Amino acid sequence: AQSVTQLGSHVSVSEGALVLLRCNYSSSVPPYLFWYVQYPNQGLQLLLKYTSAATLVKGINGFEAEFKKSETSFHLTKPSAHMSDAAEYFCAVSRSGSARQLTFGSGTQLTVLP
Amino acid sequence: EAEVAQSPRYKITEKSQAVAFWCDPISGHATLYWYRQILGQGPELLVQFQDESVVDDSQLPKDRFSAERLKGVDSTLKIQPAELGDSAMYLCASSLVAGTSYNEQFFGPGTRLTVL
After folding, report:
1. In angstroms, rounded to a whole number, what is the distance separating the alpha carbons of residues A17 and A55?
2. CB contact under 8 A, A100 and B110
3. Closest partner CB to A98 (pick from B93, B99, B108)
4. Mind listing the pLDDT tens digit of every residue in chain B (116 residues)?
5. How far from chain centre, in Å, is Cα B12?
6. What is the β-pairing status of strands A87-95 and B65-68?
7. Cβ-nearest to B98 among A44, A100, A104
8. Which residues contact B12 (CB under 8 A, 6 or more apart)?
């Protein structure tokens, strides 16, 4: 079975500062990994995904994440936070295979301070 | 841009009542998922359809929850009777085909259920 752990349920950064949201995964087979963003009372939007190609993945809105197998990590970063980045972020893992089911972490609420 | 549609967006009901949620996936998407997201947690899969067939409903509380996708297009999730612990966001997602290569799941806006 696969799982993800998101370290830090709440993260606060100042506008213009580096954003770092942490995600560690557990999977017995090569995983697919994802970051989603959720704004209040809305569904989830895919930010980026790792599907065994390049280990550094670039996504939308200036976010990127690096797959590190040795550390079983897939941390999300953005060089400069914007007020509009304030939202909840979810890391998710999926097995390669026919089911393609996603297992989500518990989420990290990002607050951007002016 | 094609989107997953869900209705209603908000539902308030009393415990022991029946509720139903509707989802219309993106046209052409064969795979449909229902997730439950309790406040402060990540979504958890309830049921997965491939066309009109259930692929996985192992996490669906079948004593009170039911889901159907009769014509392999839109889907309905029902709860009867609703309990206080069912208060959550119910999310629907769809993807092209859950096959040998990755297909992105697209999420709808969700239905926020409050059980009083």
Report:
1. 24
2. no
3. B99
4. 789 999 999 999 999 999 999 999 999 899 999 999 998 899 999 999 999 999 999 999 999 999 999 888 999 999 999 999 999 999 999 988 655 456 788 999 999 999 99
5. 17
6. unpaired
7. A100
8. B113, B114, B116
Q: What is the pLDDT of residues A58-105, one digit of tens each?
A: 999 999 999 998 999 999 999 999 999 999 999 999 865 545 688 999
Which residue, chain included where needed, has tokens 């999420």? B107
Please say whether the beta carbons of B13 and B111 come within 8 A.
no
Angle at B104 between CA A28 and CA B66, to 5 degrees: 85
| B→A interface, C-beta within 8 Å | 4, 6, 9, 31, 33, 40-45, 48, 55-56, 91, 93, 95, 98-100, 102-110, 112
What backbone phi and psi angles, to 5 degrees, belong to B38? -80, 145
CA distance B63 to chain A (A): 23
Q: Which two tokens stand for residue B27?
A: 């046209």
A60 in helix, strand or coil?
helix
Pick from B97, B85, B78, B80: nearest CA to B34? B78
